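Question (not urgent): is this output format expected?
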Amino acid sequence: MSHFSIIIPLYNKENFIENTLKSVLNQNFTDFEVIIINDGSTDSSEEKVLQFNDSRIKYHRKKNGGVSSARNYGIEKAKSDYITFIDADDYWYPDFLDEMFKNINACPELKVFSTAIEIETSKSVIPANYSIKKTGNFEVVNYFKASSKRTVLCSSSAVFHKTVFEYTGSFDTKIKSGEDTDLWIRIGLAYPIHFSWKILTRYVYDQNSLSKKHKITIDSFNFSNYQLLEKTNPELKKFLDLNRFSLAIKSKLISDKENFNKLYNQIDLNTLPLKKRLLLRLPAFLLTYLISLKTILANSGLGSSVFK
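Got this back:
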């Protein structure tokens, strides 16, 4: 049995999947299986994958059901004790799995492991900016306290013991936007996170990706699932309010006044910094200008998203 099961959900990533798969197959640590779930791609993604001849690759095709459905299918097929994901447009450095293997052996009592990431835009590569105070090569953190700037769990930079999904459940297929965040919350409520400061994953910013669009669907993240818990968990409340802030800004940008008011009224403004409180009050045209400016700065490595 392989030590790691690597799950790659694949949907119309013909321009990326070769580099992603090469980064997986070129890992220094070689004891793994690769489970590729083609979620109904209509481009040449399948052709790109089938060029690879490696016995560790297990290739599956299914009718399109969304990324959550594809990841869950991969979890069902996984045979290893440790499960990790990489999106079909992201990239691992060669020592990603080796670092994870070492961290697992050093802290066998932990179940969730993660590393720092960098972000590739059209202009530059930027190291992610985290809210964690650095005390050593790694930290064991509370997910909510550690994720006020950048989440410490990313779909391409974390490893989970299989029992994590048995306890928390897997990705919610009813959620069309924010499905990662929903699972990270459930995991964060149950497990501490081993976070390594080594940058071993590159998140590639794909302009065509659904998650980059401002449109909000009815099926996006459902805060009501945590309505009772956030009343007794201040760190969860603060984390959820930061996400409400992000969605409220996006609602204003697309003139969704009803959704903006709903989200705004759920936020405890005392949990937000002054800058974010001011942003909530700005008209949409000023927000559009600020976002354009912040995007230019972020692409140059001089700033981060206005939504964070």
